[in-house]
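re: that chain from earlier
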Amino acid sequence: MFDWKEYLNLAEQLTRVTIDTVSDEACLRTAVSRAYYAAFHIANDFAKNKDENLFKQVKNETVIDKKGNPRRRGDHEVVIEFLMRNSDNNIMEAGVKLEGLKKERVRCDYYDNIKNIFALAQKVILETKDVLDKISSI
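^ sequence. v structure.
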């Protein structure tokens, strides 16, 4: 079974290396993405094991999109919503932070201009560690 923390290890390595054929910015954008996915997958496993009934409930709920159409939540939204509904403050905070990490991952994956990418990558790695600490404290 794959250890999702390896994505976090990779993210940390990508902030410290220079690769001749790849720009530093590409490494840093990838670091943000890998750190987020480490947090997402570990949180996803946590959510499924913590309360399978609540997880299924959140997954099966219908929500309204920006255009007013009903839809189901995507996998990432399900995990974030599950964490944010938890009565434990650490887990709720992990959900809020995971939502922020997702937004940064989307920025790095889809937008051309990211200011201070090195600082952003370092911040995302620290936030990912905090999410994992909050989840593992339970």
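The chain has a mean pLDDT of 95.
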